[in-house]
Amino acid sequence: MKSKFRHIALLGKYHLPQPGGSKPSSRLVLESIAQFLHTQGCEVVLEHETAANSGLQGYPVMDLAGIGKSCDLALVVGGDGTMLGYARQLAAYNVPLVGINQGRLGFITDIRLNAFSETLKPMLRGEYEEDKRALMHAKVWRDGHCVFDALALNDVVVNRGATSGMVEMRVEVDGHFVANQRADGLIIATPTGSTAYSLSAGGPLLHPSLPAWVMAPIAPHTLSNRPIVLADTGEIAIDLVAGRDASANFDMQSLASLLLGDRITVKRSQHAARFLHPRGWSYFDTLREKLHWNEGVA
Protein backbone atom coordinates (compact mmCIF):
# COMPACT_ATOMS: atom_id res chain seq x y z
CA MET A 1 0.00 0.00 0.00
CA LYS A 2 1.35 3.41 -0.99
CA SER A 3 2.28 6.06 1.52
CA LYS A 4 -0.33 8.69 2.29
CA PHE A 5 2.52 11.21 2.53
CA ARG A 6 4.54 11.96 -0.60
CA HIS A 7 6.86 14.79 0.41
CA ILE A 8 8.48 14.26 3.81
CA ALA A 9 10.97 16.56 5.50
CA LEU A 10 13.68 15.27 7.82
CA LEU A 11 14.73 17.57 10.64
CA GLY A 12 17.08 16.76 13.46
CA LYS A 13 19.44 17.86 16.16
CA TYR A 14 23.06 17.26 15.32
CA HIS A 15 25.42 15.37 17.60
CA LEU A 16 28.63 13.38 17.24
CA PRO A 17 28.89 9.86 18.65
CA GLN A 18 30.59 9.82 22.04
CA PRO A 19 33.55 7.46 22.58
CA GLY A 20 32.18 4.30 24.11
CA GLY A 21 28.63 5.63 23.79
CA SER A 22 25.65 3.76 22.43
CA LYS A 23 24.22 6.53 20.21
CA PRO A 24 25.14 6.56 16.51
CA SER A 25 25.89 9.89 14.85
CA SER A 26 23.02 11.98 13.57
CA ARG A 27 24.21 11.53 10.00
CA LEU A 28 23.92 7.76 10.20
CA VAL A 29 20.52 7.98 11.88
CA LEU A 30 19.15 10.46 9.34
CA GLU A 31 20.57 8.47 6.45
CA SER A 32 18.91 5.25 7.61
CA ILE A 33 15.55 7.02 8.03
CA ALA A 34 15.85 8.72 4.64
CA GLN A 35 16.63 5.41 2.94
CA PHE A 36 13.66 3.77 4.66
CA LEU A 37 11.34 6.58 3.50
CA HIS A 38 12.64 6.14 -0.05
CA THR A 39 11.69 2.45 0.03
CA GLN A 40 8.16 3.52 1.00
CA GLY A 41 7.86 5.66 -2.13
CA CYS A 42 8.35 9.00 -0.37
CA GLU A 43 10.32 12.00 -1.59
CA VAL A 44 12.70 13.15 1.14
CA VAL A 45 13.76 16.73 1.83
CA LEU A 46 16.36 17.79 4.40
CA GLU A 47 15.97 20.91 6.50
CA HIS A 48 18.94 23.12 5.60
CA GLU A 49 20.59 23.34 9.03
CA THR A 50 20.08 19.61 9.55
CA ALA A 51 21.80 18.93 6.23
CA ALA A 52 24.65 21.36 6.92
CA ASN A 53 25.35 20.11 10.43
CA SER A 54 25.02 16.40 9.74
CA GLY A 55 26.88 16.37 6.42
CA LEU A 56 24.20 14.19 4.83
CA GLN A 57 24.07 14.71 1.06
CA GLY A 58 22.10 13.45 -1.91
CA TYR A 59 18.73 14.94 -0.97
CA PRO A 60 17.05 18.28 -1.74
CA VAL A 61 17.52 20.91 0.98
CA MET A 62 14.93 23.48 2.07
CA ASP A 63 14.51 26.06 4.78
CA LEU A 64 11.56 25.81 7.16
CA ALA A 65 9.39 28.12 5.08
CA GLY A 66 9.97 25.94 2.02
CA ILE A 67 9.21 22.81 4.01
CA GLY A 68 6.03 24.38 5.35
CA LYS A 69 4.81 25.23 1.87
CA SER A 70 5.77 22.03 0.03
CA CYS A 71 5.96 19.08 2.46
CA ASP A 72 3.00 17.18 3.86
CA LEU A 73 4.83 15.62 6.82
CA ALA A 74 7.85 16.48 8.97
CA LEU A 75 9.87 13.81 10.78
CA VAL A 76 11.75 15.30 13.73
CA VAL A 77 14.69 13.29 15.06
CA GLY A 78 15.90 14.30 18.51
CA GLY A 79 14.41 15.06 21.91
CA ASP A 80 11.49 17.13 23.11
CA GLY A 81 13.49 20.36 22.90
CA THR A 82 14.20 19.76 19.22
CA MET A 83 10.52 19.06 18.61
CA LEU A 84 9.45 22.21 20.48
CA GLY A 85 11.62 24.40 18.27
CA TYR A 86 10.43 22.96 14.98
CA ALA A 87 6.78 22.67 16.07
CA ARG A 88 6.61 26.39 16.82
CA GLN A 89 8.05 27.30 13.45
CA LEU A 90 5.94 24.90 11.38
CA ALA A 91 2.64 25.44 13.20
CA ALA A 92 1.71 28.34 10.91
CA TYR A 93 1.91 25.97 7.91
CA ASN A 94 -0.30 23.27 9.48
CA VAL A 95 2.32 20.61 8.74
CA PRO A 96 1.91 17.46 10.90
CA LEU A 97 4.98 16.30 12.83
CA VAL A 98 6.17 12.87 13.91
CA GLY A 99 8.83 12.65 16.63
CA ILE A 100 11.55 10.01 16.65
CA ASN A 101 13.13 10.05 20.08
CA GLN A 102 16.89 10.43 20.16
CA GLY A 103 16.79 12.29 23.45
CA ARG A 104 15.86 11.27 26.99
CA LEU A 105 12.28 11.88 28.14
CA GLY A 106 10.33 11.90 24.90
CA PHE A 107 6.92 13.24 25.97
CA ILE A 108 6.28 14.53 22.42
CA THR A 109 8.91 12.51 20.52
CA ASP A 110 7.41 9.14 21.21
CA ILE A 111 8.74 6.78 18.52
CA ARG A 112 11.75 4.78 19.65
CA LEU A 113 14.73 5.16 17.36
CA ASN A 114 15.45 1.42 17.35
CA ALA A 115 11.91 0.68 16.19
CA PHE A 116 11.24 3.53 13.77
CA SER A 117 10.74 1.46 10.60
CA GLU A 118 8.09 -0.91 11.95
CA THR A 119 6.34 1.97 13.72
CA LEU A 120 6.37 4.33 10.75
CA LYS A 121 5.17 1.84 8.11
CA PRO A 122 1.50 1.82 9.21
CA MET A 123 1.62 5.53 10.04
CA LEU A 124 2.70 6.37 6.51
CA ARG A 125 -0.33 4.40 5.26
CA GLY A 126 -2.60 6.62 7.33
CA GLU A 127 -2.84 4.53 10.49
CA TYR A 128 -2.14 7.09 13.21
CA GLU A 129 -3.65 9.19 15.99
CA GLU A 130 -3.65 12.96 15.48
CA ASP A 131 -3.03 15.20 18.46
CA LYS A 132 -3.36 18.99 18.20
CA ARG A 133 -1.55 21.13 20.76
CA ALA A 134 -2.36 24.80 21.28
CA LEU A 135 0.43 27.38 21.30
CA MET A 136 0.72 30.59 23.29
CA HIS A 137 1.48 33.96 21.75
CA ALA A 138 3.47 36.16 24.13
CA LYS A 139 4.69 39.73 23.87
CA VAL A 140 6.88 41.96 26.00
CA TRP A 141 5.72 45.58 26.13
CA ARG A 142 7.88 48.55 27.14
CA ASP A 143 6.58 52.13 27.21
CA GLY A 144 3.63 51.08 25.08
CA HIS A 145 5.75 49.38 22.41
CA CYS A 146 6.17 45.66 21.73
CA VAL A 147 9.88 44.89 22.13
CA PHE A 148 9.68 41.07 21.94
CA ASP A 149 7.22 38.73 20.28
CA ALA A 150 7.35 34.93 20.54
CA LEU A 151 5.35 31.72 20.39
CA ALA A 152 5.57 29.04 23.06
CA LEU A 153 4.37 25.46 23.01
CA ASN A 154 5.45 24.58 26.57
CA ASP A 155 5.54 27.69 28.71
CA VAL A 156 6.21 31.36 29.23
CA VAL A 157 8.34 31.91 32.34
CA VAL A 158 9.23 35.12 34.16
CA ASN A 159 12.41 34.48 36.17
CA ARG A 160 14.41 36.43 38.71
CA GLY A 161 18.05 37.21 37.99
CA ALA A 162 20.68 34.57 38.77
CA THR A 163 22.20 36.54 41.66
CA SER A 164 19.26 38.69 42.74
CA GLY A 165 16.36 38.13 45.14
CA MET A 166 12.70 37.61 44.42
CA VAL A 167 10.77 39.47 41.75
CA GLU A 168 7.46 41.18 42.38
CA MET A 169 4.85 40.86 39.66
CA ARG A 170 1.38 42.33 39.24
CA VAL A 171 -0.84 39.73 37.59
CA GLU A 172 -4.06 40.34 35.66
CA VAL A 173 -6.38 37.88 33.90
CA ASP A 174 -8.69 39.39 31.26
CA GLY A 175 -8.11 42.83 32.74
CA HIS A 176 -9.05 41.73 36.26
CA PHE A 177 -6.44 42.19 38.97
CA VAL A 178 -5.42 38.85 40.52
CA ALA A 179 -2.57 39.60 42.91
CA ASN A 180 0.84 41.11 43.43
CA GLN A 181 3.08 38.07 43.66
CA ARG A 182 6.56 37.89 45.17
CA ALA A 183 8.41 34.77 44.08
CA ASP A 184 11.44 33.50 42.20
CA GLY A 185 9.26 33.64 39.12
CA LEU A 186 5.99 32.72 37.47
CA ILE A 187 5.16 30.03 34.90
CA ILE A 188 2.31 30.12 32.40
CA ALA A 189 2.14 26.62 30.91
CA THR A 190 0.04 24.93 28.26
CA PRO A 191 -1.17 21.34 28.78
CA THR A 192 1.90 20.27 26.78
CA GLY A 193 4.12 22.23 29.18
CA SER A 194 2.35 20.90 32.26
CA THR A 195 4.83 17.99 32.29
CA ALA A 196 7.83 20.35 32.12
CA TYR A 197 8.90 23.23 34.39
CA SER A 198 5.39 23.68 35.78
CA LEU A 199 5.41 20.12 37.10
CA SER A 200 8.70 20.80 38.92
CA ALA A 201 7.10 23.87 40.51
CA GLY A 202 4.20 21.80 41.88
CA GLY A 203 1.71 22.42 39.08
CA PRO A 204 -0.92 19.85 38.03
CA LEU A 205 -0.83 17.68 34.93
CA LEU A 206 -3.30 18.82 32.25
CA HIS A 207 -4.61 16.49 29.57
CA PRO A 208 -3.59 17.93 26.16
CA SER A 209 -7.22 18.09 24.99
CA LEU A 210 -8.09 20.70 27.65
CA PRO A 211 -8.44 24.35 26.55
CA ALA A 212 -6.59 25.52 29.64
CA TRP A 213 -3.36 26.89 31.08
CA VAL A 214 -1.57 26.48 34.39
CA MET A 215 -0.29 29.57 36.20
CA ALA A 216 2.28 28.32 38.70
CA PRO A 217 4.53 30.44 40.95
CA ILE A 218 8.17 29.45 41.44
CA ALA A 219 9.12 29.36 45.14
CA PRO A 220 6.50 31.94 46.21
CA HIS A 221 7.03 34.13 49.27
CA THR A 222 3.46 33.39 50.41
CA LEU A 223 2.81 29.66 50.77
CA SER A 224 -0.90 30.13 50.02
CA ASN A 225 0.07 31.28 46.53
CA ARG A 226 -0.69 28.06 44.67
CA PRO A 227 -0.87 26.98 41.01
CA ILE A 228 -4.19 27.78 39.35
CA VAL A 229 -5.79 26.40 36.17
CA LEU A 230 -7.23 29.03 33.84
CA ALA A 231 -9.21 28.99 30.61
CA ASP A 232 -6.96 29.68 27.63
CA THR A 233 -9.54 31.92 25.95
CA GLY A 234 -8.43 35.11 27.66
CA GLU A 235 -5.26 37.10 28.23
CA ILE A 236 -2.81 36.99 31.10
CA ALA A 237 -0.77 40.13 31.79
CA ILE A 238 2.26 40.25 34.07
CA ASP A 239 3.80 43.60 35.07
CA LEU A 240 7.30 43.58 36.54
CA VAL A 241 7.05 45.71 39.70
CA ALA A 242 10.36 44.99 41.44
CA GLY A 243 13.46 42.84 41.02
CA ARG A 244 16.79 43.06 39.20
CA ASP A 245 18.00 41.22 36.10
CA ALA A 246 14.65 39.52 35.49
CA SER A 247 13.93 37.80 32.19
CA ALA A 248 11.09 36.22 30.25
CA ASN A 249 11.75 32.81 28.72
CA PHE A 250 9.71 31.18 25.98
CA ASP A 251 10.00 27.37 25.95
CA MET A 252 13.44 28.02 27.51
CA GLN A 253 14.67 28.53 23.94
CA SER A 254 14.34 32.29 23.52
CA LEU A 255 14.81 34.97 26.13
CA ALA A 256 13.98 38.61 26.68
CA SER A 257 15.68 40.70 29.37
CA LEU A 258 13.14 42.68 31.39
CA LEU A 259 13.17 46.18 32.89
CA LEU A 260 10.98 47.44 35.71
CA GLY A 261 7.61 48.43 34.32
CA ASP A 262 7.70 45.93 31.46
CA ARG A 263 4.49 44.04 30.76
CA ILE A 264 4.30 40.47 29.43
CA THR A 265 1.02 39.50 27.77
CA VAL A 266 0.06 35.92 26.95
CA LYS A 267 -2.78 34.89 24.62
CA ARG A 268 -3.69 31.69 22.85
CA SER A 269 -2.10 31.62 19.42
CA GLN A 270 -4.22 31.15 16.32
CA HIS A 271 -1.84 28.31 15.40
CA ALA A 272 -1.60 24.79 16.82
CA ALA A 273 1.03 22.09 16.49
CA ARG A 274 -0.15 18.86 14.86
CA PHE A 275 1.49 15.72 16.25
CA LEU A 276 0.93 12.27 14.79
CA HIS A 277 1.28 9.21 17.03
CA PRO A 278 1.15 5.46 16.32
CA ARG A 279 -2.32 3.92 16.26
CA GLY A 280 -3.42 3.09 19.79
CA TRP A 281 -1.32 5.87 21.34
CA SER A 282 -2.58 7.09 24.72
CA TYR A 283 -1.49 10.09 26.77
CA PHE A 284 -1.80 7.96 29.89
CA ASP A 285 0.61 5.39 28.47
CA THR A 286 3.09 8.23 28.01
CA LEU A 287 2.63 9.42 31.59
CA ARG A 288 3.10 5.93 33.01
CA GLU A 289 6.26 5.36 31.02
CA LYS A 290 7.92 8.75 31.39
CA LEU A 291 6.96 9.43 35.01
CA HIS A 292 7.63 5.83 36.09
CA TRP A 293 4.17 5.23 37.49
CA ASN A 294 3.36 1.69 38.68
CA GLU A 295 7.02 0.84 39.22
CA GLY A 296 7.31 -1.83 41.88
CA VAL A 297 3.66 -2.85 41.44
CA ALA A 298 3.24 -6.58 40.88
Model description:
With 298 residues, this protein is of the alpha/beta class. The chain contains seven helices and 18 strands. The protein has helices at 26-39, 48-54, 64-70, 80-90, 116-124, 197-200, 283-290, and strands at residues 7-12, 43-47, 61-62, 73-78, 96-101, 111-112, 128-142, 145-152, 155-159, 167-173, 176-183, 185-189, 212-218, 228-231, 236-242, 247-250, 254-257, 263-278. The strands form two sheets. Strands 1, 2, 3, 4, 5, 6, 7, 8, 10, 11, 15 and 18 form a twelve-stranded mixed beta sheet that branches. Strands 14-13-12-9-16-17 form a six-stranded antiparallel beta sheet, with no helix packed on it. A hairpin with a 2-residue loop joins strand 7 and strand 8.
Helix tally equals: 7
In CATH's first tier, which class of the largest domain applies?
Mainly Beta
- State the distance separating the first and last CA atoms: 42 Å
Mean pLDDT across all residues, rounded? 92
- Residue fraction in strands: 35-45%
**Overall domain count:** 2
| CATH fold category name of the largest domain | Tumour Suppressor Smad4
- CATH level-four homologous superfamily name of the largest domain: Probable inorganic polyphosphate/atp-NAD kinase, domain 2
* Class by SSE composition: alpha/beta
The CATH architecture name of the largest domain reads Sandwich
Measured on Cα atoms, how large is the radius of gyration? 21 Å
Features:
298 residues; Rossmann fold; Tumour Suppressor Smad4; 2 domains; six-stranded antiparallel sheet
